[in-house]
Design a protein that fits this description.
Elements: H1 13-22, E1 25-28, H2 34-46, E2 56-58, E3 67-70, H3 78-81, H4 90-97, E4 102-111, H5 131-134, E5 145-151, E6 163-164, E7 181-182, E8 190-194, E9 199-200, E10 210-218, H6 237-242, H7 245-250
Helix pairs in contact: 1-4
């Protein structure tokens, strides 16, 4: 039987940030309202992929599962745009990446019944050190990239929860499958995790679609990934009209700095 990951929300932002360093992720319950959840799911159902943006948009067919993976979601509808700086999440992102951090991507992701298991992986491991070095409490590896998963379903095993291996952001070798723990949270809850933590998506053996919004944050020096590239991506004009000063920075409106 699958084991469940501990989902502990710390009331102090400093403790949420410390969790990012200790176990590799932090939990934010009810980050979105149920109204936001419903609107995001509605919009995801009606989005159409843009091939030049590396989107995947595949309907369910016999032997083929539904998958919709839409990049640059903030550019598609206000409901996505408003998730750039959700309270409780953005404070963690700025706390670990710095007050000049930005969003490097936002993906709307729907996976239907039949989606298979992923293998355990890390998204990016920029610093590799021997385990005996990272075990030294004097060594703290900076957090370069984080991903926030906004879960839009009440998660259960058959729906294909994300599985994490807490604390493995400082481990070099692939963990054993027996160490995996399922993220079983409610619709509207969020988990923010660093790119080095070992995790995977699991098979959707249910009869419903799984809905997930991903927001990727990073230190300013990490490039933003808004395809298509070579000056082909353009913000929709109304998107920048919506933006607060913080949201403009998150979208790349930085002050002059090194290498500018």
């Amino acid at each position: 039987m699958a084991s469940t990951a501990p989902l502990i929300h710390h009331s102090q932002i400093e403790d949420q940030i410390e969790a990012m360093h200790q176990i590799g992720y932090a939990y934010i319950p009810q980050a979105l309202t149920l109204e936001q959840v419903a609107e995001l799911k509605y919009q995801m159902d009606h989005l159409e992929g843009i091939p030049e943006s590396f989107d995947r948009d595949r309907a369910a067919q016999p032997g083929v599962f539904l998958e919709k993976h839409i990049n640059n979601a903030f550019n598609r509808d206000r409901s996505f745009f408003d998730c750039l700086d959700i309270k409780g999440v953005i404070e963690i992102a700025e706390g670990v990446h710095g007050s000049d951090c930005h969003v490097i991507g936002m993906t709307a992701w729907v996976t239907g019944p039949g989606r298979p298991d992923q293998t355990l992986h890390t998204d990016w491991k920029p610093v590799s050190l021997p385990d005996d070095i990272t075990a030294d409490p004097r060594v703290r590896i900076p957090i370069f990239i984080t991903t926030t998963h906004f879960y839009l379903n009440d998660m259960y095993e058959a729906l294909g929860p994300t599985k994490f291996v807490p604390g493995t952001h400082v481990k070099q070798n692939r963990p054993e499958p027996s160490e995996e723990l399922s993220i079983l949270c409610g619709a509207g809850d969020a988990v923010i995790f660093r790119s080095e933590v070992w995790h995977r998506g699991t098979a959707n053996t249910s009869n419903e679609n799984r809905y997930l919004l991903q927001v990727h944050y990073a230190q300013r020096m990490i490039t933003q990934k808004f395809p298509p590239y070579l000056n082909k991506f353009q913000f929709e004009p109304h998107v920048l009209d919506w933006a607060t000063d913080r949201q403009r920075r998150l979208l790349g409106g930085h002050q002059k700095g090194a290498y500018d």
